[in-house]
Amino acid sequence: MNTWENSYLEASKLVDNTTINSKGVLLGFNVNLDKVIELNPVSFANVLRKTEDIGNLYADHLPSKIATIKDLFVCLIHSIKEGKANEVLISSEEVAKWIENTFVISRTVIGGQAGIMANLLKAVQITPVLLSTPIASTRLLELLDPSIIVPGASYPSSSLKSGEGIDKIEQITHYVFEFSEGQYDLGNKVIKCLRSNRFIGSYDKVNSLLAFSDEFREYSESNILNFSLGVISGFHLIDTELHPSKSFSEIFKPVLHLIKKWKERNPKLIIHLELAAVNDVDLKNKIVSYLFPLVNSIGLNEQELISYLSSIDATLSNSIKFELSSVSLFRGIHAIFSRYPHLRIHLHYLNYNLILSPLISEDTILLRKNSLMISSIFAAVKAKNGLIKGRKDVTEIDYNVSKTGLEELQRLDTYLKNEFNGEESLLKKGYLITESFAIFGIPTIVIPSPKQLTGLGDTISLTSILFEMVESK
What we know:
This protein is of the alpha/beta class. Helices cover about 40% and strands about 20% of the residues.
């Protein structure tokens, strides 16, 4: 324990003593409004009491989309019961209106992986930052740092409207239910939530087209040599049911063409794909087959791993659902790596983080380990304070290392040494090198009463890859 606390202390000193050697970062393709709803057993019971009887709130299979109030409760209760993060699209305007009129919205913030990461980049002193937004909206611009380049943002929003005041800006609204641990009374049953987490219901008719402006396309293609990292996300929001005239292939085509243009004009560009869970099997398969061969790196949590692994090894994916251990999760990311051995795969989990990648040079081993620890520190800052103001925030954190994380790394260490004859020790050194891959693992920092849960995975993925691209001051 003390060894890891000392390692965190040493890593934290590097945050302000290094320069990220990145020309700039470009991001697409999901930016939205996050309306945050804080839930605890008391507030949830009050809402349930006021809601008309909608029948059984349990289901063996979760709905692929939220079309009714009952669908919303089924998905929300499942997340609370399991203590798991999840996101499901809301297909009904009536459900969106009902949420607005029923729950207390505590705050509205920039949402979407690309939007969250764009503001974070400013906090860690990265310029330039280029961001694609799905619409030209002054409301979005108000929530973004003014230094972020948003091509086409000064243009007026076109009119995509439906009835009674829900216009285009409201059609990129994601309702973030941040639930706390405790006993939740469902009337005829009580469920115990062991882990605070969040459920997102996304009412999004714009990001579902993976829309980006001509101005963003032209600017990014013309200036791609000014960027060394591209971060792409939002593919989980694609929904052909909202756009019956479009197929998955037709929606993907412009984005894939753009990414290939970037790589063609700047072969050194690193592209990281941040994933989110998908229920639609066809979409999931398209994301894997279209994007995994094209990108250099992917980031995902345990639920997203289970989701995407089903496209590669359905049997293993199903088994992981019943055993979320470090060994089973490693086996999951290793199955993806075996199919796509060029990928750097970053798994962020509650008590530990793992990176599995091709073999790397000896002088970058310590750099990657420290970058992984730095990303854990930044996630702890966000969880504790609700936001990251700057690099100096890392000095405000107590390095309370997860005991569960240490135990899981010990189990994984034993497994790896038996199966792969790895050198060094994952538990003691934070990495293990085998003949065919490198695996990095660290225990995370425990924050007892987190203020912020949404965007922690994005924070971890982005800061980890950024602090691999560093040079000493």
